[in-house]
Write a structure and sequence with these properties.
Length: 924
Amino acid sequence: MARQAVRLSRLSCRQRHETRFSMEMDTLLYSQSIDICPNHSYVEDNKFDIRSDLMHKKPTQSDMEYTQTSPIVPKANIIVPPASPNDIIRERLLERLDESVSRKLTLISAPAGYGKSTLVRTWIHTRGKKAVWISLDTGERSASLFWRTVAAALLAEYPAMRETMDLRMSPGDSGIDSLLSAVLELVSKLSDSCVLVMDDYHRVSNPLVHNSMSAFLEHVPSSLRVILISRNIPPFPLSRLRVSRQLSQLNTEELRFTMEEAEELQRMMLMNPLTAEELALLEEKTEGWAAGLLLAFMSFQDRQDVGGYIQAFSGSHRYIFDYLADEVLGRLDEQLLHFLLLTSIADRFTAELANAITANQDAHALLDRLEKSHLFLIPLDDSRVWYRYHHLFVDALRSRLQVKKDAGTIREYQRRASRWFDQNQAYDEAIRHALQAGDYDWAAERIERHLSMLVKNGHELELMVWLTQIPLAHMVPRSDLFYYQAGTLALTGRVQEADSLLNDALVVLGEQQRVLSDEASRELTMRMGMYRASIAFYRGDIEAFVELLDRNREGLRLFPSIVKVVNLGEALLYRGPIGFGGRLNKMAALSAKVAESEGRREAIHHALQGHGLVFLADLYYERNALDNVKPLLEMALSAQATPSGLGVWVPAIILLSKLLEASGDRKGAGDCLHDAMKELDQLQTPHWRMLLEARLVRLKLMQSKTNEGEDWAARYPMLTHESASVDREYVHVTLARIWLMQGKTDIAIRKLRQVEKAAFRADRLGSRIEIGLLLASAYDRQGKKSSSTEALDQVLRLAEPEGYVRLFLDEGQAVRRLLLDRMATGLESSIRQYVRKLLDAFEAEIGMRSAENRTDMSTEVDKLTPRELDILKCMANGCTNSEIATILFLSPGTVKRYSHHIYQKLNVKNRVQAITKARELQWI
């Protein structure tokens, strides 16, 4: 059976389609569907050349292409900004940086306009430092994209290492562990010292990025030092670095311009320098704020009453800047001001983009003028192709643009920018500008066309933001987009939001019907039937769900994507929205409904493909009907492992390994997982591989092999730092299991409590049962009997109505002992009957495994009977003969006789030797 899964996966497509399904295999699920088969081929480039034709160079295709590590990473974002002859050499701060890089992290934090980036750029160029620079932008919402950007920047500086790296990660944040490990592996191979600079780190808002940065800093080798430039203190723990003297900080107070530095700046800017008194007053008014000083000097040109002008400054930096910006902008000629205002709509731009926005061809000359006038224009690469404005300056420009131009005109500028970015394959920026232009149909069409590429490159969170900006009337006709949004909400546990979205869509569809042709109206009616079926499914209304499907067979045939299931990352299929959160009764009710009609079976197979097979196999497994599981898994695994089918294939493999273990074949269970991981290695899907690794770790932990669990956790340092979430539940619970085996009970309980809260919010009943059992065992180990009993009682109340069995059996003898203890106390009749059923299942399993002479049992001694094994377990837990008698409903004399038999079979003389021998044999 272990090898059969892989053989089955190699069946031909024709063989798979010719396979017949039995009535018991029929079930229907719904989730989102995306047909990710775009005809767009995204261009990749691994050249990081620096060109010298400077100002008048047009952006080539290579300037717009992205790196081979596969994220959307503009090259301008991963190149050290070029040196400028206008930079002030602030030697006192350069020396501070010389000292700081002996530590892991240098944090430079101050408000905008204090010269943070300029300081680090100047230090790199004047000191000749080897550096990797990352300019973070508003798109850095995904942790996957964040670390892909880091990898791209490192490989840009060290291209020779590209062959050793393979960073084609799975979509989104799900592959963050493998990606972080890959980046750490990359930096561990650096042959020389290097500085990694992350500019504008305050733009990062994703907690997963902060958690992963904390893990990265903890494990970063001495060959790499990190400089973070931010407007605020990053929200990850710095105390450990500070205590270990691995943190250096520069703040606002240190970055303020001294009088000497202000004098040097004015010598560069002014033909007629200020008096000492005027300069002192200016320094006092601006408090050494670099942006304020620079704007002030620019506004002094050709002004007579400089002293009175300086006296007029008042208020905070924000007001000073606005005041000075107005003064400076008011003195520009109309052509240059028009250029500044229009180009301010873009976060970054080239001369060609500027020409497209302004509908002129003079951008090169105007950019030349702006550079020479020191007007807050920042080049982003050595070849002077890409530029941006200082953040404060661009805010001032955009504010003035709102005053100068009407909303319709501004939307036209945004539309021009979106078309230019689209023509140059920068699709994320094209979509952002289209949305700002209110061009919703065009934006929706581009998102739909490039959906797979955007997901692959880590833009899931931004996609959800974009989709909320598009009115439903523009999105509902594009079912892939609508179901990406609704399905993502559901798959992350936000079922009520998905329900609300679907209801709103029905209203929109009803309104659209009034103005449509008969044919279009009929099509919409069928879609509405499918939408209503979706709503019924999410509500768990099986009767309405099946009835709507029966009434809309033609709609199901025409629009199968509406009910096709897509599992994007769930290891245990039945616990997510696909399996009603682990509500076995609903799974069974739906399966029974499906089996009532031949036509219904055909329709459902058309929509479900392999998900229904795993769905039903899970149901049989959890209710301990193991003989019914294997045929279903054979059918599910008959399909080859492909990236689009792993949502079925991986959960089926995990369930197969559980089935083999439950049947007493632990070796086969391990072989099954190893074979599957070899298959996945060819597909480069680290998230799915990680789930199989986690399952293998659980298998090893049941054999008391904690070292393999420790090694696995060490490969994924991110796990310890990140917050719990349902989409990472399986690996988080696996980590908690490792900690429990290591005796780290307190931190394991904290992790389990976090995951439990996430499971409760997502309404994952099956997850709450597993976590509750682990908590009951953990509290028992700590001697907290009342907490253990409370946790166990909650589990029993949740599990009894659904008929769970295997979840208890798979936890082994620790849970069995808890159930025995609980039977000795007061229980309500229905729960007592349920516990008796579970204990009978344990007895049957122990007898079966003893009869099969399992490979992990010793053959050197006679096998213990189930009752003798119970007594031995109680001995190991420190129970006296009287306590054992009470727990097992025996007399003390009977316990004594059993103990004598145990000593004889183990060839030992006393209780201590018996416990030691049993542990050596891994019986307890």
